[in-house]
Amino acid sequence: MTAENTSAAGVDGLRAVGLGGLGAERSARVLDLVRSVPDYPEPGITFRDITGLLADGAAFGHVIEALGHVVDAVDGGIDLVAGLEARGFLLGAPLATHLGVGFLPLRKAGKLPPPTDAVTYDLEYGTATIELRAGTLRPGARVLVVDDVLATGGTAAAGAELVERAGGVVVGLAFLMELDGLGGRDRLAGRGVTTLLHVES
User: Measured between alpha carbons, how far is 167 from 113 in angstroms, rounded to an integer?
Assistant: First the structure.
């Protein structure tokens, strides 16, 4: 599964790799609305702010349409979109509505009433846990996992594991942006990773 068949001209280290189905003009509009904020949250880091993209109804719609094209490439389709808290909710819920399927929130620990299924995973400093309400997934349900950014891949790998432990089948993972050089794609090798925008280091 991949929608990464077209590259657009880069904008400040940001390149479109999965927006080919939108055409050049709409792809450029999406790129233009991602703001680069240097030295945030600390010196040497460039933060990619998607607030302007989310606030532009047409451009946000373009992103959801492009993510929909990802699903078109999935043999057998999907039953659910799973979004990782928190910004995966911003993309996953409208994508699910666009596709006419259900949405599954994968939440931080303590946000859901019991019973829950949980996966704990390592962070650079410490651990984190994500949860899914037990019994939400029917066995064999086909699930696309969605988040805003693919960095090291730890959270996404945990999300995929959580879905699988609960009886679902992860048919792919889709992200708005992928950060170059952090190893996330390698960590998710074999899982059908698609990104719409690539952030060069």
Answer: 20
User: Whole-angstrom Cα distance, residue 187 to residue 160?
Assistant: 12
Q: Is the pLDDT at 3 greater than 60, yes or no?
A: no
Side chain identity at 111, as an amino acid letter?
K
What pLDDT sits at residue 167? 97
Q: What angle do CA 186, 191, 196 make, to 5 degrees?
A: 75
Integer CA distances (angstroms), 88 to 49, 76, 80, 175, in order: 15, 23, 14, 8
**Rounded Cα distance, 76 and 140, in Å:** 12
Backbone phi, psi, residue 174, to 5°: -130, 140
Q: Among all residues, which ones are annotated catalytic?
A: 87, 124
- State the pLDDT at residue 135: 94
pTM of the model: 0.92
3-class state of residue 35 by DSSP: strand
Burial class (CB in 10 A: 0-12, 13-18, 19+), 9: exposed
Nearest to 35 by CA among 153, 177, 174, 173: 177
Q: Helix, strand, coil % (nearest 5) of the chain?
A: 30, 35, 35
Spatial CA neighbour of 161 closest among 199, 122, 121: 121
